[in-house]
Amino acid sequence: YVNADFGYQPTGDSSDIGDTVFVDPDADGVQDPGEPGIPGVTVALLDNSGNVIATTVSDENGNYFFPGLPAGTYTVRVTDTDNVLGELAPVSDADGGNDNQSTTTVDGVADDLDQDFGYAPPSHTPGNGVIGDTVFLDTDSSGTPGPGEGLEGMSVELQDGSCTPGVDCPSTTTDENGNYFFGNLNPAATYDVVVDTSTLPNGGVGLTNAVDPDGGGDSQANVDLNT
Questions:
Q1: Which residues contact 175 (CB under 8 A, 6 or more apart)?
Q2: Scanning 11, 129, 144, 184, which has its CA 20 to 30 A from the CA of 87?
Q3: Per residue in 30-49, pLDDT tens?
């Protein structure tokens, strides 16, 4: 017999806790225009004894939500069990600890929907630019990366005219979710982001670049951070 469930509800009113996991280059804790939410990040809710009482995953906009909570003190912890955040580092959270968690107290009536968590590349200086996101195998032809479509180990280079491509330009490798980021960039500069197609599966044989930021379909994109 595997249906012996026990359900509980708050007595009277309840509070909700939640909000957003996002890229926060200026580390101000506020999701500004152009600072995308990060989907697929696992978030846990702990009670005042440190017990995990709920988990959820951020949606396509980076939002997460824990509803129906009785009055009490709770800790929201970004556990990121699928390593979606990769090499990103915490730069802002609601209680200022920058430690992937934040503690809040609710009264069982009002909600706390200001539990935001901001991330940026390690050693990134707030106010400088960030370029990045995902290299993926678009198996469903949706034009956006879906679960399991990210390509790990892809080499991506950043060119700005001051370096020699393939020699001394900054480069990085996508993580297990296909994500990559370049931080500490001049926010008034223009860059070319170039995917090394030789690092694609089978060296890119049989693959066509159907999605890129500027629509060129040439495995590279020109990005102006001043726009």
A1: 83, 86, 87, 150, 152
A2: 144
A3: 999 989 899 899 999 999 99
